[in-house]
Structure formats: structure tokens, C-alpha cells
Amino acid sequence: MGRGRNIATILQPLNKCASQCYLGTGLHTLGLLNWILQQTGRADVYVSTFSTSEAFLNGFFNLRKKKLINHSVLLADLKASKKTVQLYRLMQSCFDTVYLGMNHSKIVLVQNDSHLVSVISSQNQTYGDRAECTMVTTDQMAFYDLYCGLRDIVDKNSIQLNGLFNRITERDNQVRENTNDPIDGVFPFGY
After folding, report:
1. How far is residue 158's CA from residue 78's CA, in Å, rounded to a whole number?
2. Are residues 33 and 110 in contact, defined by beta-carbon separation less than 8 angstroms?
3. How far apart are alpha carbons 177 and 171 in whole angstroms?
4. Among 2, 14, 80, 96, which has the minimal tally of Cβ within 10 Å of its Cβ?
5. Torsion-angle region of residue 22: left (phi > 0), alpha (psi -120 to 50) or beta?
């Protein structure tokens, strides 16, 4: 988690400050999640983003390997799905469930028996040098409201990604096998 600034120079420990905000550069979501999990211990993690990156997913996978993440859910935007296709297998190894929906929100929710932590950010799960705005709170009502909103999007306005691309690939292979195309390896547009 070497990117970004030392979070201890930006934010106070969760048990010392119930709500805190930061506007500036150097506070990246992955480092922030690691910082939170170091304080909460093993927890369920819910991530909502427009776009994610290989760097974020690799870091998330490492947090899982360290046994800091119990159960995890990712909601990414459907419009960013071209990038999602490329990261599909990595997402599957990081998250228990992945959803695609009409989503531009950027939140991280961390929950276990003793902690409820909400992160609201302008930052996607990517790295950059632009200023971003982040709010971290342990307020129970904020967590509940964000969790209910996320659950509503997942339940009513998203598709579950798990296995989707495998099913599409299998269907496409069957269509190709049944197509008599005189040019080897070239298939009509739309197949």
C-alpha cells in the first residue's frame, strides 16, 4: 500500500473521531480501506464504484489473503463494463459477488460485530493525482442509509456478474460452431 500519503497524517483513528473529512491529494481508497481494517479487524466489505483498476483489485486480493476481509460485494457501473470485462477474473477472485448497474456512487462500507464504518468518496477505485473528497464516519445511521441504498440498487437495478461472461462465451462458442462461415475464424457481425 505504498501509494499516497500516510493516512495517520490526514485522519484520526476511528475511535477518536466519529466523522472526518478530507479534500486533497494522496488519500487513496485502497490505503484507506487497509487503514480501516487495521482498526476494525476482519470485516465484511461492500464497495460501490463507477470504475475500478487492476491495482485496486490486486490490493484488495492481498487484504483477503491477510484474512482482513470476511465477505465482500462489489457494485460497478454498467457503462464501465468494457473495462470490467478485462478485469472480470480478478474481480471474481477478490469479491464474493460482483454486480453491474447504473452506478456512479463511490462508497466503501465496512461491517463486523463491533464496527460500522462508511466511506463516501469522489474517487473511483483507481489511482490518480487529482484532488478527491472523502468522508469517513462511524455513524450507525449513515451506514444504515448507505447500506439500504446499495441494497436497493443491487436488488432492483443491477445484474449479477458472477458467471455472466462465462455464460456469454459458452453461448458465443456454440453459435460459432453452428455457423458455416466460408472464411475460417471470421463470423458475421452480431454473433
Report:
1. 8
2. yes
3. 10
4. 2
5. beta
Per-residue pLDDT of the chain in tens (191 residues, 90 and over written 9): 345 678 999 999 999 999 999 999 988 899 999 999 999 999 999 999 987 888 889 999 999 999 999 999 999 887 765 555 566 677 778 889 988 888 899 999 999 999 999 999 998 777 777 899 999 999 999 999 999 999 999 999 888 876 554 544 455 556 556 555 444 444 443 43
Give the β-pairing of 107-111 and 43-48.
antiparallel
Give CA–CA dist 128/188, Å, rounded. Answer: 40
For residue 13, give the DSSP letter: -
| Total count of residues recorded for the chain | 191
